[in-house]
Write a structure and sequence with these properties.
By secondary structure, the chain is of the alpha+beta class. The protein is built from five helices and four strands. Bound molecules: zinc ion (ZN).
Length: 153
């Protein structure tokens, strides 16, 4: 699926503001789609359309709620800015259009992770999940050392 088709599919499920911070939306508006890796878009579409059919709560700043850094994080978002000011390197997949954090209504994060693992055959490439956190972090970083379809890190 090419980028144009993927984005058209996406718009059935997500508003761009759910996937980027306020800063990026303010500067780029609807054109902010361009910052997402194609494989990330494919992962997210499969995850939302075929697995988490109840819906996914990513950012909700656009409806007056607090989440703004669950998708793409720009360099002036709080987390990257604090790391930079502290002189620390920060290579989070959130800064590369390759990650998101989310919840599924009615399920715990652990239940969602188990469901992603159970459905791992649906992904045509390897993905990662963060373990031991009470939200779901999912990304497409691949250091090629893992032979698992889904790496828990
Ligand atoms: Zn930002």
């Amino acid at each position: 699926m090419d980028r144009k088709t993927l984005i058209a599919e996406f718009k059935k499920y997500f508003d761009i503001r759910e996937l980027v911070c306020r800063d990026v939306y303010k500067a780029f508006g609807e054109k902010a789609w361009q910052f997402f890796d194609l494989q990330f878009l494919q992962m997210l579409l499969i995850t939302r359309r075929d697995i988490n059919t109840e819906g996914m709560i990513v950012n909700n700043w656009n409806v007056g709620k607090p989440y703004s850094q669950r998708g793409l994080r720009c360099n002036i978002c709080d987390i990257p800015e604090e790391k930079t000011k502290a002189g620390q390197i920060y290579m989070s997949a959130h800064c590369n259009g390759a990650a998101l954090d989310y919840d599924v209504p009615g399920l715990t994060a652990q239940q969602v992770r188990q469901r992603i693992l159970y459905n791992s055959d649906k992904f045509p490439f390897k993905i990662r999940l963060e373990g031991g956190v009470n939200w779901v972090h999912q990304d497409i970083y691949d250091d090629i050392n893992s032979t698992q379809k889904v790496t828990i890190f």
